[in-house]
Amino acid sequence: MYLLLQTTWDFILRHQGLMGSPFFPVLFSFSIYLFFCLPYVLMDCLSVWVPLIRRYKTQPNNTVTLKSIKSCLAFCLYNHLVFILPLTVLHWYWRPVHLPREAPSVPSLVGGVLACLLLFDFQYFVWHLLHHKIPWLYRTFHKVHHSYTATSALTTEHSGAWEMLSLAFFAGINPYLLRCHPLTELAFFVLNIWLSVDDHCGYDLPWAPHHWVPFGLYGGAPHHDLHHLTFKSNYAPYFTHWDRLAGTLLRQPPHHEHHQHPE
C-alpha cells in the first residue's frame, strides 16, 4: 500500500508546476465537485421516466428542474471565480508550495484524513447551529443555502460567499493545524467534497457511505435531507454524535408538520 502511495506521490511531484499554480485549487475543487455531481444529475434527469431510480429518492415527489441545475451551476461558478480565485492567488503569493519527496505512511494518511474530517464536522456543526439559532445570521448568510427544501447534488455549493468562505477556511486550515502531508491534505479535500455531495444528493442508495458505518454514527443523505426539510435538526454535516449530544438529532420527519423558511 505504501508503494502505491509513493507512486502516486511521485506522479504528483512530476507535475508540481501545476500543483504550485495559483489556479490549481480552483480548477481542482470545481472539477472534482462537478465529477461527483454528474452521476446524480444524470439520475435526476432519468428519474422522471425510471421508477427504479425514483424509489431511492429521499423526497420521491421532488423533481429537479433544468432551471435549478442552471442556477446552481451559475452560483457555484460565480463563487469560485469571484471569491475563491483571488484568495488562492494571494495564498500562492504569500505561502509558496514546497513539496516533500517522500509520501506519507498509510497510518499517517488514514489518521490524518479522519482527524481532519472529524475536526471539520465539529467546526461546521458549531457554525451551522449558530447560523440557525441566531436569526440575523440565518437571514443574512445561511438562508440562501436553504432555497431548496429538497436536496440535490448541485445544491451542495448553492450558498452565499460568507458560508462558502467559512467552510473553505475550515477545510483548508485543518490539515495545516494537524501538520498533514500534502498528499493527506489532497485526499481529505477529495473525500470532503465527495461526502458533501453525497450529503446533498437526495438519494438513499444501498451503497452510500451511511450504510457502511455501524450504529448510525454517520448520517448521510437522509440525515441532511431532514435538515433541509425541517430547518431545526441534524446540524452536523456528516457524523451524528454532536446532534445526539445537543438533542438535535432527527431520524424521521415529524408528521403533519408544515415546513417553511424561518424568518
How many DSSP helices? 11
Shape call: globular
**Helical fraction:** 55-70%
Strand % is under 5%
- SS elements, strand count: 0
Integer average pLDDT: 90
Largest sheet: none
Q: Report the C-alpha radius of gyration, rounded.
A: 19 Å
Written as H for each helix and E for each strand, in order along the chain, the element string is HHHHHHHHHHH
Q: Distance N terminus to C terminus?
A: 52 Å
Flag low-confidence runs.
none
3D structure, described in words:
- The chain has helices at 2-14, 16-19, 24-46, 51-54, 66-94, 106-133, 135-142, 161-177, 182-200, 220-230, 241-246.
- The protein is mainly alpha-helical.
Write a short abstract of this structure.
The protein is an all-alpha fold and 263 residues long.
Supply the key terms.
single chain; 263 residues; mainly alpha; 0% strand; globular
Map the helices and strands.
Layout lengths: L1 H13 L1 H4 L4 H23 L4 H4 L11 H29 L11 H28 L1 H8 L18 H17 L4 H19 L19 H11 L10 H6 L17
Helix pairs in contact: 3-5, 3-9, 6-7, 6-8, 6-9, 8-9, 9-10
